[in-house]
Amino acid sequence: MHALLPPGRMVLMGSPLRGSLTARNLARLPFGKMIMGQSVAQELMLPRERRWNGSRELGVIAGDSGFGLGRLVGKLGGPSDGTILLEEVQIDGAADRAILRVSHTGMLFSAMVARAIASFLRTGRFAR
């Protein structure tokens, strides 16, 4: 039997919730699907529409630095964190969304992202 989680909030960082053009570009290359693995490829290959209906407030962080590994496998053709397009990080039903000047990988090491997450976890909104 699973215990119920206490009330809280959660944050997604650069998650390709609507599929990934970078994954589709990578899949076209020799061994691209093998590099991603079958389950990742299946999840990211098709554009998707999603809606958050969970009981916890959801915050979403996207980067817009435009510098990242996604550029090595093809043009992204729109605002991105260099790997994931801003439009791919959207999900209906999120409580708040922040677009920060970071790359996809840089999110993991950014003090600015850490402060944004702390703000959302405390208040349910990203500090502006």
Structure description:
It is a single chain. Helices cover 25% and strands 13% of the residues. It is of the alpha/beta class and 128 residues long. The chain has a domain at 9-18 and 51-123. The chain has a three-stranded parallel β-sheet with strand order 1-2-3, covered by helices on one side.
Key terms:
alpha/beta; 128 residues; 4 helices
What is the topology?
Blueprint: E1 9-13, H1 21-27, H2 32-36, H3 38-44, E2 57-63, E3 96-100, H4 111-123
Parallel strand pairs: 1-2, 2-3
Question: What does this entry show, briefly?
Answer:
Helices cover 25% and strands 13% of the residues. With 128 residues, the chain is α/β, with parallel strands linked by helices.
Parts with pLDDT < 50 across at least 5 consecutive residues: none
- State the helicity in percent bands: 25-40%
* Ends distance: 41 Å
- Give the overall pLDDT as a whole number: 87
Strand order of the largest sheet: 1-2-3
Morphology call: globular
